Amino acid sequence: MAMSVGGDTAEKPMSDINTTPLVDVMLVLLIIFLIAVPVAIQTVKGIKLPSVRFDPTVTKPENVSLSVAGNNGTCQVYWGVTPVTHQELLDRAVAKLKTEIDRQGGPGNPDLELPEAHVRADVNTPWRCVAGTIYNMQMAGFAKVGFISQPTVAG
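The structure corresponding to this sequence follows.
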């Protein structure tokens, strides 16, 4: 502790802010975060996460629109607005894909654009119903099966 004795009578009181406590607190916080961040963020090395971006769905007439609902332990799949069983879904998907490939000139066409399957599912639908629909579409040969969701309103 320092003290001034005697001297000039026109001395003014010291008005500078003591920054030592602020620096002490900042150093403690820095040390805490340096220790806590690596513990909180646990990652496996070598895994590259996909970049996320929003692509609006372009509806083409050849795409298949499916709706899935599940209640009371049963699953109901709709092709457009027509209810179908899982076997009918598989048969219709194979026929749709074959028709579309033939329409575009056959499997040897280098510019072949396969149709996509767009799946809508109720929020309360069990995952097994949605997964079964995706599995059937992939078994039929559909390479792109996507989900249609309700966009959130920003604001």
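The first helix runs from residue 20 to 40.
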